[in-house]
Amino acid sequence: MGPPENHTRAQERQAAGRRKRRARRPRLRRCLLKGCEQRYQPTQAQQRYCSENCRKEAREWSRWKAQQRYRETTAGQAKRNHQSRRYRERVKSRKATEAKPVDKGARVITQEHFFRAHVRPAGLLRGLRAPAAKSVAALLLRIVPASIGASAAAGTALETGTHLSRRY
């Protein structure tokens, strides 16, 4: 049997029998970030996390974990010890500068009206009366009872017009 008379005709028949393949969508995956584990439709073949936020958190955790592994090595421990030593030296030098007394003059309030807010207005001061001055003798003799034969009004001659309140 020889070649077909029309080559293009055979290819057309062959193409008509084929089905077109559709691109297959990947199945749902779970986000690999611990605590999220949400199901999502990946847009790329190697996508491991559902969102940009999960990607950032995973990167931060990865850096933290790498730091922890490095600190376990002898080089990491030596570096950390050196950092701690430098920090302690900085703290000591800070304390030395703070311990020096600074000579400052007395604090002076330069504002003229500083105490004005704490003073009563003049209208209120007019109503207040200063209590009369009481002598020590009046205070002491008030407690002492009158002697026999003395009148009851004997103690009132010492002080007139004032009222002593009992505050003991």
Your description of this structure?
The protein is mainly alpha-helical. It is 42% helix and 2% strand. It contains 5 helices and 2 strands, in the order αββαααα. It has helices spanning 7-17, 52-72, 74-99, 122-127, 136-141; strands at residues 29-30, 39-40. Strands 1-2 form a two-stranded antiparallel sheet. It is elongated, with a radius of gyration of 50 Å.
Describe the secondary structure blueprint for this structure.
Layout: H1 7-17, E1 29-30, E2 39-40, H2 52-72, H3 74-99, H4 122-127, H5 136-141
Antiparallel strand pairs: 1-2
Short characterization:
The chain is mostly helical and 168 residues long.
Distance between the termini: 142 Å
Could you tell me the strand content as a percent range? under 5%
Low-confidence blocks of residues? none
Structural class: mainly alpha
C-alpha-based Rg, rounded: 50 Å
Strand order of the largest sheet: 1-2
Helix content: 40-55%
Average residue-wise pLDDT: 77
Q: How would you spell out the order of helices and strands?
A: HEEHHHH
State the major sheet: 2 strands, antiparallel
Shape category: elongated
Q: How many strand segments? A: 2
Number of helices: 5
